[in-house]
Amino acid sequence: MHSMNTCCFTGHRAIASEELPVLIHRLEHTIAELIGQGVVSFACGGALGFDTMAALAVLKLRQKFMQIQLILFLPHKGQARGWSKKDSRTYAQILSKADKIIYTSEYYYAGCMHRRNRSLVEGSTVCVCYLNRAEGGTAYTVDFAKRRGLRIINLALA
User: What is the pTM of this model?
Assistant: First the structure.
């Protein structure tokens, strides 16, 4: 399923609102560049924040570049439990438009997020991230991607 032409996304859930317009533009521009380089599969983890932005950007660009696919790697089936109505609606919309959904677990357990993150990285050659601090799930995932030899594009530094 994964190949030389797969990009994964990872990033923080909380993003300063003043950064959003620039980050969305940068994200769409980066995805379009990757499509130009032959990337056709885009893998997202479905979390709030950067994951949601990335999935929406892929869906937007899929209207123009019909060859691309959105693949969701979700940690468990109840991921959106406890989210706001607005966030839950956006999540449901993303799920309904995804080309493929893979649940790394049926139910929540302590390691399911790490398992989802590793699954995102394992079949990818590029990791587009929003990383601006050295600890947490995003830092872990980017470090794992670096160790596996992925090309890292950090939109927080660009």
Answer: 0.94
